[in-house]
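Re: weekly structure request thread

Next one in the queue (292 aa):
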Amino acid sequence: MGESRGGAGAAFSGSIVAIVTPFKGEDIDLDAFTSLVEWQVASGTSGIVVAGTTGESATLHPEERESLCKRALAAARGRVPVIAGTGTNATWSTVQLTRAAAQWGVDGMLVVTPYYNKPTQEGLVLHFEEAARAAAGRPVILYDVPGRTAVTIKESTAKRLARIHGIVALKDATGDLERVGRLAEETPLALLSGDDAATLECMRRGATGVISVAANVVPEKVARLCREEDARLHEELLPLFKALFVETNPIPVKFALHRMGRIRNELRLPLVPLSAEHEPTVAEALRAAGAI
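Done, posted below.
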């Protein structure tokens, strides 16, 4: 396997939760957020991604990102890494957010491929190079999710990016398991599954863990899945993995956490709460997984 297993990317392994952002009217519910972070750490989660896609990053104000990151750091108390989502579709704003996150003291940055404007591979390299420079020595995790961004990091580009100082890991949500295996073998990057349903197969091919949506609701089980690579547990959780994507993430997972009594079922427009037709599907999956 690649040298990342003993390098900087080794810090990013196991179940890393892409944590939701709870709202209370127009404001962030920081008390609920703190409780979520504390529950995650106590449940064996290996890291917290703040202000990622699941955290509705696209609708957060800069000062809200700062509040969330600082609250997560205070609640985690150094027990697990706190990773800030700092990627946007403009390099200047990605650099600005990444530089700020480094000043807040986060343990790493998750930087998504620029969405909508569809840069070339050369543009991607330059974009991520600028982000890595702005991280000021803190590790950067690349995030490749073509289903949301309409652009992907080619394998040859990933190999170029792996040579840039500070870029240590790749969250892969391409759905290409063979690619995950090749990149785990041929680069020093730590590979992280970007899809709960693919976690087991990704880890069998050399991935070190997952950045997980499902860990929001079953943190202990997702942590155990990563730790033990248990096929039976994977089968048990598969209906939940699927149910949490019956509508755009994080709509279903926020409904789930509301049913569990942990947050209000509130999102920011243009996202809206889960439709009534899908509520039974998500509720049943929660019951089957032992979450309610």
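The chain is about 45% helix and 15% strand. Residues 1-6 have pLDDT under 50 and may be disordered.
Next request, please.
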